[in-house]
Design a protein that fits this description.
- With 106 residues, the protein is an alpha+beta fold.
- It has a single domain, classed as Alpha-Beta Plaits (2-Layer Sandwich).
- The chain is 22% helix and 25% strand.
- A four-stranded antiparallel beta sheet has the order 2-3-1-4.
- A hairpin with a 6-residue loop joins β2 and β3.
- The two termini are 18 Å apart.
- GO terms for molecular function: sequence-specific DNA binding.
- InterPro entries: Dimeric_a/b-barrel, Tscrpt_reg_AsnC-like, Tscrpt_reg_AsnC/Lrp_C.
- It comes from Croceicoccus mobilis.
Length: 106
């Protein structure tokens, strides 16, 4: 089932060469908090992926930025979205594999 058609853009070619994975832990787990957080994250176009997780962290965000200073700007917006218990950022050193292809065939 096709959900739509997209064009793939080389992030570095458009000045978005920094990829950051942001792990978020929260002390609040109610629907109102999640709604506020999800809406706030949806308003940050630099967040290109957003997951609710099991295990040690509650949410994982993939963020693209121009450079570290640009990420700091994004981070400052993110921490104002909702009350967060802990936020940890990890910068990708090298992208080894990235694909949108799904393993559909044998």
């Amino acid at each position: 089932m096709l959900m739509g058609r997209i064009g793939l853009v080389n992030r570095e070619a458009v000045g978005l060469g920094v990829t950051v994975f942001v792990a978020v832990r929260t002390a609040r787990h109610n629907d109102e908090w999640l709604s506020d957080f999800a809406q706030g994250v949806a308003n940050l176009p630099e967040v290109v992926e957003f997951y609710r997780m099991s295990g040690e962290i509650d949410y994982l965000l993939k963020v693209v930025a121009r450079d570290i200073a640009d990420f700091d700007r994004i981070y400052r917006k993110l921490i104002k979205v909702a009350e967060l218990h802990d936020v940890t950022s990890s910068f990708a050193m090298q992208e080894i594999k990235s694909t949108t292809q799904l393993p559909l065939g044998g």
